[in-house]
Specification:
This protein is an all-alpha fold and about 150 residues long. α2 packs across α4 and α2 crosses α7. The longest helix is centred in the C-terminal third of the chain and has 23 residues. It contains eight helices and no strands.
């Protein structure tokens, strides 16, 4: 079966998506405290993460490592309202950037955003390593099964 990465249109399509997402997140007052000023490398890092998660090249793991992702979220104290708003903007960015709109792909995007934002929120409140989410590698997202869960 085709990977989510290929179905999305590969790296260029995901970079467009991430660029739209980052622009909308930085314009959102509730999320500005979490993201601060836009750094050019953030789009590259998030594009690499999304690509690897969806079955593309594993550049994120080899260039940054998952510990980087934990470090950038630590101490942010993400609220549930901020997490939900991020997911809304994530899905809106998929529309605005022209990612495929078929229901199975969108279900995968939603479950990825929901799961990832839950992990980020938990890690943002962790005072010690034992309070971190146990995930320590880029999750490999698949097409949803009949229950809508990731494989």
């Amino acid at each position: 079966m085709e990977s989510l990465y290929d179905h999305a249109g590969g790296r260029e399509a995901l970079r467009r998506f991430v660029d739209v997402l980052c622009t909308s997140v930085l314009a959102e007052p509730a999320l500005q405290p979490l993201f601060g000023a836009r750094r050019p490398e953030h789009v590259d890092h998030l594009t690499a993460f999304e690509a690897e998660s969806f079955g593309g090249p594993d550049d994120f793991t080899h260039q940054l490592g998952f510990a980087h992702l934990i470090d950038v979220h630590r101490g942010l104290k993400i609220t549930e309202a901020q997490r939900q708003r991020f997911v809304e903007l994530y899905l809106a960015a998929a529309d605005a950037s022209g990612l495929p709109g078929d229901p199975p792909f969108r279900a995968a995007l939603r479950s990825h955003a929901e799961f990832g934002s839950q992990v980020a929120m938990q890690n943002s409140h962790a005072r010690a390593d034992d309070e971190l989410h146990p995930l320590r590698e880029v999750p490999k997202w698949q097409w949803p099964d009949s229950s809508g869960d990731k494989s």
